[in-house]
Amino acid sequence: MSDRVVLAYSGGLDTSVAISWIGKETGAEVVCVSIDLGQGGEDMEVVRRRALDCGAVESVVIDARNEFADDYCLPTVQANALYMDRYPLVSAISRPLIVKHLVAAARAHGGTVVSHGCTGKGNDQVRFEVGFNTLAPDLQVLAPVRDYAWTRERAIAFAEDNGIPINVTKRSPFSIDQNVWGRAVETGFLEDLWNAPTKDVYDYTQDPTLNFAAPDELIITFERGRPVAIDGRPVSVLDAIVELNRRAGAQGVGRLDVVEDRLVGIKSREIYEAPGAMTLITAHQELEHVTLERELGRYKRQLEQRWSELVYDGLWFSPLKEALDVFVTKTQEHVGGDIRLVLHGGQVIVNGRRSLSSLYDFNLATYDEGDRFDQSAAKGFVQLHGLSSTIAAKRDRDVRELGR
Known about the structure:
Belongs to the argininosuccinate synthase family. Type 1 subfamily. This is Argininosuccinate synthase. By secondary structure, this protein is an alpha/beta fold. It folds into 3 domains: 4-173, HUPs (Rossmann fold); 176-354, Argininosuccinate synthetase, chain A, domain 2, CATH 3.90.1260; 362-398, Up-down Bundle (Single alpha-helices involved in coiled-coils or other helix-helix interfaces), CATH 1.20.5.470. It has 14 helices and 14 strands. It has helices at 13-26, 44-53, 65-78, 95-109, 124-135, 144-147, 152-161, 237-250, 275-291, 294-312, 319-331, 362-365, 378-385, 387-402; strands at residues 4-8, 30-36, 58-63, 111-115, 140-142, 175-179, 182-186, 216-223, 226-230, 233-234, 255-261, 267-273, 337-344, 347-354. Strands 3-2-1-4-5 form a 5-stranded parallel beta sheet, with helices on both faces. Helix 1 packs across helix 7 (152-161). The N and C termini lie far apart (81 Å).
């Protein structure tokens, strides 16, 4: 192979080793692409230079923080997307964005091969490669960690033997993926389901008891399902996530300990931290309870689960996902107003709602003076509503009596 390989570069051991390994094994030049998704940690310029030191012919850093927030996190909020009713798709929604930029980089830098550092056990190999096959089926895919059964020990040995400039002696018990939407932690002692997470698992959140005596009350304002202000101060979607990560994280909000069904057929134990994500989704769900008509709300809740499954399963670019996006966008037309909530002891507690698009009518709901609900109409409604069940029950009684 003499083609250029465009590598999704994280700056860690596996992808750093991959640069040199690809060059030695295939003779190809490697172009590294690192995406800033608000993950924090190392300075992205340090990551870019490391790729060059490891042998990349070019290294590019793309600041995609606002794009990620607007085009990937926001749809997740509007879909109230929680895989298995718990996981806000922290890693899953980042992969299609990385795919998009890797394809663009391949076109810009003359690449004919794209490469990632995923293993064969996880979901990310599917998310990457289905995305590549959808957006750029002409590109070949190289996955050295999976296809050549790398272990950490083999990667460390290769790095030492080839003088790859990366610290390979520090051993973390965990595998970690993070971005501004949240943080995912797995492996190590967490693989024993009975082991409780220890303090060193967490980074985005404080112990929920730490600030227990100082709850944080705030108001999130939405327009068409989009967060636009916090406590009256205008914010972008990215601003909202960052501020809520800080404030909700200080209250221990967003800690999730999940045994989830992976796409490849196994169950895995994951620890997630998503303080901003869980706060925004909770507030958005509550505002929809106020502003969505009953049947629309019921149907949307069914489709939210399917949307979450499609994204988790790596089908971001699928026709069904795109069609559901249109539906979700339509439902957001009247999702505007304020949600007041309290962040306290690891919980998000909603205690106030107001909206100019509210479908809550005080004079219909009240049991006090001013009640305009026509209770005399209820008797006939109840009889008609249950009529089909009443008829079926009579049929079943008659059949039983005839059989005696």
